[in-house]
Amino acid sequence: MADQPAQPLQAAPSAWGIAPVNPVLEAFSEDNHRLVSIDGFLAQPDQVILQAILQNFAKITPQYPGVRAALDPAVSRAWLGQLSPLLDQWFGGAAGSGGAPWAMQAWYSLVTTPPHALAPIQCLPHIDGTDPRQIAMMLYLHDTPHGGTAFFRHRSTGLAALTADTYPRYAAAVQAEYGRTGLPAPAYPTDGAPHFERIHVAEGRFNRAVFYRGNILHSGVIDNAAPLSADPREGRLTINAFFRPAAG
Predict the structure, then answer these.
(1) Contact 46, 142 (CB under 8 A)
(2) pTM of whole model > 0.70?
(3) Fewer Cβ within 10 Å of end Cβ, the chain: N or C?
């Protein structure tokens, strides 16, 4: 993961209480991929948004079409203590890593890049990595025309999730397809046409957290006609987290 700029000290973890209760488990795609949704995730979501206003957002990676600010590691540690046994339950002990503990890294995130300024790769569904043991969390903290997270299948290969073994075949197919049809139009993915199809959507309700394997093809549901504000109070604010088996 990329190095992150220093951030202002956030509120004590006690102000960041979470209630990971009443999860809704869904299976989608021919491979029965799992999506877990939890409403009312944060006890004080408005306080967390106020903390977002104090952050120094910056462009951290070229892939993400916006800016991010790292969460205080103390907050991540507090959340991880509650979420680890649930991740074991939902996805299998550290996602099949033989009982290793989980590690977590998380950011505030704001999608801010207008459609016309997107790089071609940002106009396609993406994955967070090819390791199926990595679990992604999206916590939606916005009330905008933009939505949650959509999941896709690549039509010609039939792949909805990519591994180290299948990625080369997928990448070669995508390169050949866009070599024939030209680069994708500068826009956030919607239905995935012509080379992808949308197979499921996690609705982006305020204060809802969703969990899924990061190697599934996905994209944020972004309204290409709606503004993308860099103000955390007005923009598509989320907290993104990745959970991985801890090293060592």
Answers:
(1) no
(2) yes
(3) C
Domains of the chain: 17-245 (2.60.120)
pLDDT in tens, 155-205: 999 999 999 999 999 999 999 999 999 999 999 999 999 999 999 999 999
Closest CA to 26 of 90, 86, 93: 90
Strand order in the sheet with 149-154: 196-202, 149-154, 218-220
pLDDT tens digit sequence for 115-157: 999 999 999 999 999 999 999 999 999 999 999 999 999 999 9
